[in-house]
Specification:
The chain has about 450 residues and is of the alpha/beta class. It has 19 helices and 13 strands. Helix 5 links the parallel strand 9 and strand 10.
Length: about 450
């Protein structure tokens, strides 16, 4: 029987570590490294039932994909119920998931630690992009703690050090201007789980990568549990990527994130009722009343500003224009002459677009149809976009044959053979994976 045993976590200072022992048939999905997550506050007083949540949140979807049971010593009773609700949503979303049962020797409900008198009781996952900034605008009266995580889009270790510093500086600057607290979390989850092997097995079933398509709503929120418990956070928000009416298979949705909870904390999938353009409208109102110099960071290429030339930068710049803002005032060098470059890139397939980007450009097109252009270049682009076949711009092509054969070989290879080939597979991961920023 397929199983995953999670040993009791150990907490020292600000770091929790947990050893995971999969059955032999599941060993290929794990690298053998213990799961570690570090916080910028002490977590030594957090109960074991909560300390185990980060690893459970990231391991359980792997178990469910293989019909495996998971065993722990103790778990927070509220989170155990949340896992059942999230599992039901994911099983309804994906046919390839099989399910599994969580077995705990003990389930507990713990009283949260006492919160400092001046500390916020809410928190928001924050990057400084459109979605998280609009969620801040919506909840700014709560003065939420801004939470940023390393180990998801920013790699752990030396490779991601510069990008992590850029993100920390940006978030800290934003927080300091508004007298907000910050929380920075670092995890090796994507190193403890063998992401390349997860892709080899499951990429054929999902639109993006394993985490974006399956695991990231539960996984990212779960990583926050010890910090939220230690700080007395009652409400934890994660900004929506999509919006009501977009029914895409995606790892962060209301029917996932809104179920995530543990003793003292409930999670919320925020602003799902607003399209991306409407979120930009909310930001524009905030700029007008409170933050004329607000800078956004959405680039798919850089973390120290915006390149201004990738699909997401151009899409954000056009959206800012349509919300009445000048992109160059908010982090995007943009001139009317660049509308032609956007059209060319879209028509010639210079960007890899999925269904979610199609919806986002359709959202822009809806606003274009209500907007008077301000220049001949803008008018020409608006006219083209109004009649463009957006579905034809989506990349529906198969990955290269070499990648498909590589994945098939990895799926079917005996574990010792796979382990020997792992360095080669890992080096190809960038070509095998596609995690699109929003």
């Amino acid at each position: 029987m397929s199983s995953i045993v999670i040993d009791s976590p150990t907490a020292e200072g600000d770091t929790v570590e947990c050893v995971v022992r999969p059955s032999a048939d599941l060993a290929r999905f794990f690298t053998g490294k213990p799961f570690t997550t570090s916080y910028d506050c002490s977590i030594e007083d957090v109960p074991e039932s909560v300390l185990v949540i980060p690893v459970l949140a990231n391991v359980c979807p792997v178990a469910w994909a293989n019909g495996a049971d998971v065993y722990v010593e103790t778990v927070d009773a509220t989170f155990a119920r949340a896992l059942e609700d999230v599992k039901a949503s994911l099983l309804e979303m994906y046919d390839f998931l099989e399910g599994g049962t969580l077995y705990a020797k003990e389930t507990t409900t713990s009283e949260p630690l006492e919160r400092a008198a001046d500390a916020s009781d809410s928190a928001l996952l924050f990057t400084g992009g459109v979605d998280s900034t609009s969620s801040y605008v919506r909840h700014r009266e709560e003065s939420p703690t801004l939470v940023s995580i390393r180990g998801w889009t920013i790699s752990p270790g030396e490779a991601g050090e510069t990008d992590w510093q850029h993100l920390q500086n940006r978030v800290t600057g934003f927080a300091d201007e508004r007298d907000l607290e910050t929380a920075f979390i670092e995890t090796n989850t994507l190193e403890a789980l063998d992401h390349a092997m997860l892709l080899a097995h499951y990429k054929r079933f999902v639109d993006g990568a394993w985490y974006s398509s399956v695991g990231h709503g539960l996984g990212l929120l779960g990583l926050c549990a010890p910090m939220a418990y230690a700080r007395g956070i009652e409400d934890l928000y994660v900004a929506a990527t999509h919006w009501d009416g977009i029914d895409l298979e995606w790892g962060s949705r209301p029917d996932i994130d809104d179920y995530v909870r543990w003793s003292g904390t409930r999670c919320h999938h925020d602003a799902y009722e607003l399209t991306r353009q409407e979120r930009l409208d909310a930001i524009a109102d905030y700029v007008e009343t409170d933050a004329p110099d607000l800078q956004l960071q959405t680039c798919n290429v850089r973390m120290d500003g915006n390149c201004g030339e990738c699909e997401k930068c151009y899409r954000t710049a056009v959206g800012l224009r349509l919300s009445g803002l000048e992109p160059s005032d908010h982090g995007y060098d943009f001139a009317d002459t660049e509308y032609a470059a956007i059209r060319t890139a879209l028509e010639e397939g210079q960007w890899i677009l999925g269904q979610d980007e199609r919806y986002m450009w359709a959202d822009i097109r809806d606003r274009v149809r209500e907007t008077e252009p301000d220049s001949p270049e803008e008018e020409s682009f608006f006219e083209w976009l109004d009649g463009a076949d957006l579905e034809a711009l989506v990349d529906n092509s198969e990955p290269p044959l070499s990648h498909r054969l590589f994945r098939a070989g990895a799926r079917n290879a005996p574990t010792p053979v796979y382990n020997a080939a792992y360095p080669v597979l890992k080096s190809a991961k960038g070509g095998l994976d596609r995690v699109r920023g929003r």
